[in-house]
Amino acid sequence: MKSKRKFKIQIAIVVIILLITASLAGGFFFTASERREAKNLPIDSIDFSQLKDGTFVGDYEGGMYKWRANKVQVTIASGKVVNIKLLEQTEKRPTEFTEELFGRVIQTQSLQVDAISGATLTSKAYLKGLENALNKAQINK
User: Fold this and answer.
1) How many CA atoms are closer than 13 Å to the CA of 15, on its beta-carbon side?
2) For the chain, what is the domain count?
3) 43 falls within a domain
4) Which residues, 6+ apart, have CB-to-CB distance to 137 below 8 Å?
5) pLDDT tens column, 58-103
6) 131 within a domain of the structure (yes/no)
């Protein structure tokens, strides 16, 4: 009698584990196309030597599910990016994340910077918003 009850408990545990696994796998596959889109998001090269002074705002709609939508403000002085501010975001990241990412852009005067480890997709989304702001700052546009 005890072995039947033990067997039923083991079966119930296996079923629960299978349901949890299926649920997680379903979520993974559901978001796969959005993650693929974000991973392949192109960040164009911007000629930082051709930027006019001023403050410019750019946004990125966040991809297929709008999970990484953001709006950034960039300040250019004496032909250099001197400040970048995150105005809006749908994905809440700590300020250290944006400070590090935007600090890399300011230091290198380039959008071709390494993404933040563990936040590659969000890094690319923020860089895309920044690219859109810098496109408005192009002298020849």
Assistant:
1) 6
2) 1
3) no
4) 51, 52, 54, 56, 74, 76
5) 999 987 777 889 999 999 999 899 999 999 998 887 888 999 999 9
6) yes
> Tokens 């296996």, residue?
14
| CB-CB neighbours of 133 under 10 Å | 23
Q: Is 29 inside any structural domain?
A: no
Q: Which amino acid is at 134?
A: L
Say if residues 91 and 67 touch (Cβ distance below 8 Å): yes
**What's the CATH code of the domain at 61?**
3.90.1010.20
CA 92 to chain centroid, in Å, comes to: 10
Could you tell me where the beta strands, DSSP code E, fall in 78-128? 80-89
- DSSP label at residue 138: B
What letter does residue 13 receive in the DSSP assignment?
A: H
Q: What is the pTM of this model?
A: 0.75
Q: Is residue 103 part of a domain?
A: yes
Q: Cβ distance 58 to 136 under 8 Å?
A: yes
Domain housing 115: 48-136
